[in-house]
TrEMBL record, chains A, B, C, D:
Cofactor: Mg(2+)
Enzyme class: transferase
InterPro entries in UniProt: ATP_PFK (IPR022953), ATP_PFK_prok-type (IPR012003), Phosphofructokinase_CS (IPR015912), Phosphofructokinase_dom (IPR000023), PKF_sf (IPR035966)
EC number from the UniProt entry: 2.7.1.11
Pfam families: PFK
UniProt-annotated location(s): Cytoplasm
One Gene Ontology cellular component annotation held by this UniProt entry: 6-phosphofructokinase complex
Species this chain originates from: Flagellimonas pelagia
SUPFAM superfamilies in UniProt: Phosphofructokinase
The protein, known as: 6-phosphofructokinase
Organism classification: Bacteria, Pseudomonadati, Bacteroidota, Flavobacteriia, Flavobacteriales
Length: 322, 322, 322, 322
């Protein structure tokens, strides 16, 4: 195996808070190890276009807390083509890159799997997505920040909901995964939580909401991937009780931004340093994650799997709101 | 004039951060003056139903910062009827109330004007609405908090917008008044601000957005009362340039809740104390407000007017985003 | 074993964000299981004084996010005496309490161990302390919130430190444990982190700080338990370079309060529900914790041990600031 | 008068949130007016050293919210000497600067007064200090942000104070001016507020604190400029009642940093634009401020005066805590 002297890094797919912390972890560990680093701008797009830039440790030290990503990110249609991937390969060769670190979600790792067919450089992945929908890590980078943003906003909505004794249906992100909904729903004392993974007894919810005690708010957290969705749920509640005072709020993209939480800053730094170290130890085509509070490495083809809501959470859902 | 020994207070209409601070200002000033206080729950509804409760100064001292309102609030159809107002009058007489303080917006003060036809008790108003759409005060209670909530969320969205070089259309509250949009748009470095009061050169915005430099985010703040609205604006931009990466986010009811800002806590306390003092000095049927940084009292029929965006703000809009 | 029909709960020692979430987890799980609950006010003091109150699930649902503790807390000298413990026992018997849940730190669990000599009721513990200094759990309740409060404040200080190219020594809490310092130091890109567990090469720090590049801030995070402390460190830096522009800030008790973070809310709910369940399954004299992301139960005499900074963190410290 | 084609700007003295917003206001207004701008780094130090840099409108647009100052700041002993001021003059001449805008506090404006003796360029000032201790403006830039930071931290401390029924003495900034203390004390429901401007009946406070109802927290806000100070106050309370559970916390430099509040962002933009406009209209040696919610210009020699706590605030202090 060739000695690794030059690592290139990119962020890809949806951005998430903690990506800059991961970059900071990478540059500091590389600095300690005497490794040269290059950043690739805008994910696979920059790889195809040869958009490499030096990474500045001092700049990253000052933005370790910030949401977004210094390297920008993008989704790339061109990388889905062989031609795109070949141009990417040429750029890596031209720049004498010895290894690649990618921070992103399942789409990113699928891209690396496809790329590995023509490129035998070692690839290392870091799970960066707010959805917490990857196997191989208990927590993805950005999930904790997104939940914190969600609960802070839901706390605010509770104020006004209580003032009016109102029903609120609040939609949170998470794609097909109910993790953000469960964590933000439990953490805000929601009366019901609707997630894709759990066939909820909707009739029961409707009766609870439609006939609820008018002296209190009634908060329902709806995962964006839920089969029903906030609008249909609202319509059904209105059918049961047309007089209810009901509002829908979709928290939206605020959940993707903002300063990273303490947890995500630490997670990013740990995973960034671990990714460099794993490459130096000769590992390739694995994603660095945290399993059972310890660093672990999982092959790409096993991270792109369904992340089920575990039994403990299912049990909590039954107690707290479903 | 009868000596005032017992004042009843209620909050009405949409809630806004700072209402509890105003209640705190009222109870402390009343305590100092030896006045008995009652709270009326749920606005005019509680007035009609005789839902009076004692007000606890200690409890309010500990919730001076909190959004919502201890007394709850509601909109009341029954108070629009003479019968409703007569029942309200009976309750005030039965409870030997000598004066009434109402915290709310234009609907609240219109209600007081109607009520004054059959009830000659002195009424005092406090402007509680996030929209800043009342004459007679430079700032309504809750406006500053709502703008702070808006800018904190827009700052978060900027992170993710910059990561993707994305166009974001962000809708903020304000009903027919563009104040929240102007303040939150200027304060977040938005590229354009669309408000109801200003005929904006939309073509220019479209061209700016449709052909914008892909190396940066492009943030448009849209007031909910704007003639165009976020969806139509998005559609028009897409017509000019179908390839733009564009998202819409509506901040929604989070703007109504959350802890009051420092400004609104102080404003609430000042207006609350001033309202009690004005009643004790014999004033009636006026709203306490802050004009030119000084306490002022304005008759109800003059506060329910249009609040125009002044020349200075219009000038800033031209420089910063329109 | 007697069937458990009535559980009493108290919070003890220093308060920490997440205690109310744990109470919420307890009441909801007990509600589901048909168990009667009583809250004991002010920790062991209330146990001695028989200060038992009913616990209201609705009230806790609305304050699941709030710092502090609904049940109040205290340190108790009287419980250190046999007489105090005997009065506590009498109160439990008089109130027909079948089991006891205590939320607190090592002092709390030592108290339970002493109490178990005269009282054979089953005891269950929940780790509530911001210091993360207990064995038997990867995270104590309140630690994540305290670190989030610390980093938000350190982020603010960085602004002003950068504006002046200033050295800042910032003291954070943690007693004899450097966890808060490590997490908040790494998460804010600090230039150095001083903790009790690690013999730091102070000369190196002094030279780094005393001769630092005047075009940037220089941030040192000092754990309150560090052998040196912020004042001495400052003095030594000044000896090397009397002209440095240096400030000391101690974050202080803000780290104990504030709304719980998302992580602590979830942790509190999980541990609260788990504690009730463990009691119902016949477990006693153990603390519920999270080890390797799974619920675990550890006997009291093993939680009161030193919690060492693990190898991974020691390695990170070497890279990032020591 | 020479036409103004080139304006130089610097920030000086203690930094405050909103300074970047003011810079943003200046660059946008100058852009509209076709004026060339230069930034001077590190206040008067950079003026003496000729450290001029171009100002980037795009960069400022993205950091309009951020605390600190893009241009850095410093205190300068050299500018107190005639030699220093002469070198500053030479740099302005060499760079063909036609006018100067300074953002800072009273020390900054005294510097401009001294400088005007040898330099007849027009100077314009913007009040940037968290202390709100200048005449000529109702609010200085950074004051509202500092109060918001203070109240958020005091709210957190209240959580833990309530949990223990503790007395807390919390010191806030403000130099010789009690504004931050008054606003943050009233806004957090403090039990007492100690400020330099008001001879407080300390005995009364001591009795109140020393014998306070143990079922609640007792919060005292102490201005850093108060004659007594937190330590002495604590000592005196302990003399009356040695058993009180009492803590002191000094909020410190966090009050200087953090993102600017909505109010300060708007204030900065307004004052920045107004400063450029005033220069273009031929005004000189005045500070732009907000008096009675309107832009106003006040000669330097009149802003450097004592800013008294007005009668309304004195009245509130009597009601709410003294």
């Amino acid at each position: 195996m060739k000695t690794i002297e030059h690592i290139a890094i990119f962020t890809s797919g949806g951005d998430s808070p903690g990506m800059n912390a991961a970059l900071y972890g990478i540059v500091k560990k590389a600095e300690q190890s005497g490794i040269r680093l290059s950043g690739i701008r805008k994910g696979y797009e920059g790889l195809i276009d040869g958009d490499l830039v030096p990474l500045d440790a001092h700049k990253l030290q000052k933005m370790v807390h910030r949401g977004g990503t210094l390297l920008k990110t993008a989704r790339s249609k061109r990388f889905l083509t062989l031609e795109g991937r070949q141009r990417a390969l040429e750029n890596l060769q031209k720049n004498e890159v010895d290894a690649l670190i990618a921070i992103g979600g399942d789409g990113t790792f699928k891209g690396l799997l496809a790329f590995s067919e023509i490129c035998d450089l070692p690839f290392l992945g870091i799970p960066g997505t707010i959805d917490n929908d990857l196997a191989g890590t208990d927590f993805t980078l950005g999930f904790d920040s997104a939940v914190n943003t969600a609960i802070e906003n839901i706390d605010k909505i509770r104020d006004t909901a209580e003032a009016h004794n109102r029903i609120f249906l609040i939609e949170v992100m998470g794609r097909d995964c109910g993790y953000i909904a469960i964590h933000s729903g439990l953490g805000t004392g929601a009366d019901a939580i609707l997630i894709p993974e759990s066939a909820h007894d909707f009739i029961q919810l409707l009766e609870k909401a439609g006939s609820y005690d008018r002296e209190e708010a009634f908060i329902v957290i709806v995962s964006e991937g839920d089969e029903l969705g906030a609008e249909v749920a609202a319509k059904k509640i209105k059918e049961i009780n047309p007089d209810v005072d009901l509002r829908i709020t979709k928290l939206g993209h605020v959940q993707r931004g903002g300063n990273a939480s303490a947890f995500d800053r630490m997670l990013g730094i740990r995973l960034g340093a671990a990714a460099v170290e794993a490459l130096l130890r000769g590992r390739k085509n694995v994603m660095a994650g945290i399993l059972n509070n310890e660093l672990s490495l999982t092959p790409f083809d096993r991270v792109v799997k369904e992340h089920q809501v575990n039994d403990e959470l299912q049990g909590l859902l039954k107690i707290f709101g479903n």
